[in-house]
Amino acid sequence: MIKLVIANRGEIARRILRAARTRGYCVAVISTQSDFDAVVRREADAVLEVPSFLDAKAIVQVALDWGAHFVHPGYGFLSENAAFAEMIEQAGMGFVGPTPQNMRQLGPKEAAKQFAQQCGVPTLPALWSEILKNIPSQSWPSALANAGLKLPLLVKASNGGGGRGLRVVRSLEDLGALVERARSEAEAGFGDGLIFIEQYLENARHIEVQVVGDGCGHAVSVGDRECSVQRRYQKIIEEAPAPNLSSSLRQEIANCAVSLAKKSHYRGAGTVEFLLDSSQAFYFLEMNTRIQVEHSVTEKAWGVDLVQAQFDIAEGRWPSQVDQNVWVPLGHAIEARLVAENPQQDFAPTPGPLKRYREPSQAFVRVDSGVVEGSRVNPEFDSLVAKVIVSGINREEARKRLLQALESTVMHGFPTNLSFVISVLNHHDFMLGHVHTKWVEQNLDYLTRSLVPASLCNFFQSEGFCEQLTLALCGGLSCSGGPFAQKFSSISNCYLRIGSCLEEPPWCLNAVDVSLGRFCVSGGALVRAIQDATPELATLSEAFRQLHARSLQSRDADMLDFVATRVSQTQIAISCLGETLIVESTRHRAKATTLAAAPKTEIMAPLAGKITLVLVKPFDEVHAGQVLFVLESMKMQFDIKADHDAVIDCVVAIPGQVLTGPSVLATLKVPNDSVGG
C-alpha cells in the first residue's frame, strides 16, 4: 500500500486526503501541538507531530520514520521550498510537486520574470535587485528612467507572497521609505529581504493559466481563471474561464504559459499568472510552483481533478484526463473564499470558535472546508474557513447559484466576509465582468453596506425581540416576568406575537427548530417593513429582492427565515438574507457607548499575532492616524495606529513578541484638552 504524508493543514489537507482515499493510499498528516483540534487530524490514518509546519528537517524525519512513499506539501508553508523538496527526494521519498530546479528557476518572482523574458513572454519593465542594492538613493531617478520605469511603481519582495513585501510608490520622495518597509517585511516574513521594482499597472486584470507538465518538456494548459477580485493583493473570488476575453487573446496567453512550462521542463501542476491592462496587452506576473487555492474552480469548470493528476505524475504516469480539449469547458464556475476577517474593519482577521456552521447543500455546490461546527479558526494560521464553488451552463447561472449557496450558509462565532462576497456578486460591475485588482478598494463603501434593510435591522435590534429570542435559545419562548411582560402575549410554546395587543399589524416569532437555531418571523408588520425598504432595494441582496417581489403580490403575511446562535453572554448572531447581524442587550450597548466616549489611554493589539515593527518610544508625541506598531497575524500585516493625538507614556511591546490575544502595546498620556469638560 502506498503511504502518503500531507505536510499541510486546513482545507487543502482535507482536499488532498479525499483524493488519496480514492486511490487507496494510507495517509498521515503533519501537525503541531498548537493545531491539536484540527479536523483533518481525526480523519487521517496517522498524525505526525512536529514543532512547526516550517521545520523541514523534522517533517522529513517523521515522514521517513513512518515509511512514507510520497509527501504532498499542499500550498503555503514549504510547498515552494526547493531545499525541502530536495531533502524529500534525497531521503528516497517522492515529492508530489515540481522539481527543486523548477522551484529555483520559477519560484522567486525576480528569477521567474527574468526567465520569462528569455522565453519571449511579455514582461513589465523592472529595476533588478542587483542594481537596486548597489546604487545610492540620489541616483534612483536616472536608474528608473534607464530601466524604462515611471510612476507609479511597485516595490516587490522577490520571495514574497500573500501581499507581504509589496508597496505601491506614487511619489519619488516616498521611494526610499517604502523600499525599506518592503525589505523589512520580506525579511521578517520570508527570511529574505531581496526586493526589486517594477512598473505598476493601474486597474489591471489578474488572469491565470493552469498548466500541467511531465518534467521532460511536455506540458498542457488546463484553462484560464479570472482572479481580479482582491483585497490586500489576496484573492476573494475566482472564476473559470475568465470572462470577456477574445478567443485569440485567450489562446495567446495560454500559449505563453505553456511555452514557459515546456522550456523549464516543469513537473506537475502549476499556475502562470498574468496582468492584463485596459488595452488588452498582457504581461507575465509570476508563476506559482504548486497547487493553488483556486484550483477547485478550474476543476469544476473543466471536469478535471488536479490533485489526482499530481498523483499520476508522482507515480510516473501522464494523467490522461488533462489531454482532453480543454478549450471547451463544461460550463462556467465561480469560487468564493469565506474567511475569518471583518471587511468593515479593514479586513482585520477574526480568529475564534465556530459556534454554528452550516454549509450549502444544493446539488450544484462543492464546498472545500477545513472546519466543522465547533471548530476553531486558529490565529497562528491562514484565515481561510471554506471555499464555496458552483458551476452553471453560463456565467449568469453560476453567479445566481453561488448567491443562492452563500445565502444559505451560516457561520457564527466571529465576523466573516460572507455578506461582503454576496455584495460583490450582486454588484453591476461584477455582473458584467468589469472588475480589476483595485476594484474592491474603489467600491468598498458599497461592498461593506448592510444587506438587510433598516426596517428589519431595527426590529432585530429591538429590546423586546432580543429578550424573547434569548429566552427561546435558552429553552423556550416565554413572556412571564421581566420589564416587557405586559407588552407581549404568548400564543403558544413555540409561537410568539411581538408588539402590543393594540398594535396592528403584529410581528410573530416562530421557533422552527431551536436545537438548530432555526426561527422565522411573519405577520403584517413584516410585509410593511419589506415594502418600506423599497427605496433601498437596489443595494440589498437578491434574497431580499425576491422577498420584496412576493410581498407585492399578496397582502398575506409572508415568512422570513433566520438562524440565531448565542455567541456570548451578551450577544446573539443572526443570519438573515445573507447578512450576519450581531444583536446586544440595551444594557450592554449603553455600557459600551459610555466607555467609547472617553479618550483611550492604551494602544491595543486587537488580536493575536506577532509584533514585527515598533515605531515609537516613550515621550514621543503622536498624532491621530499615525502608525505606531505593525502586527502580523494570520499571514497578514496590520498597521496599529493612534486614535487621537497623545504622548507615549510607556511602550510594553518589543519586535518579535508573540501575542496570544488582544494585548496592550503602549500606554498614553492624553492631552488635557482632549478629555473635555
Q: What portion of residues is helical? A: 25-40%
Summarize the biggest pleated sheet: 8 strands, antiparallel
Number of strands: 38
The radius of gyration over CA amounts to 27 Å
Structural account:
The chain has 677 residues and is α+β, with helices and mostly antiparallel strands. It has five domains: 94 residues, 3-Layer(aba) Sandwich (Rossmann fold), CATH 3.40.50.20; 75 residues, Dna Ligase, domain 1; 243 residues, ATP-grasp fold, B domain (D-amino Acid Aminotransferase, Chain A, domain 1); 136 residues, no CATH class; 77 residues, Beta Barrel (OB fold (Dihydrolipoamide Acetyltransferase, E2P)), CATH 2.40.50. Helix content is 30%, strand content 30%. The chain contains 22 helices and 38 strands. The strands form nine sheets. It has an eight-stranded antiparallel beta sheet with strand order 14-13-10-11-12-15-22-20, with helices on both faces. A hairpin with a 4-residue loop joins β10 and β11. α13 runs antiparallel to α14. The longest helix is centred in the first third of the chain and has 19 residues. The chain is globular.
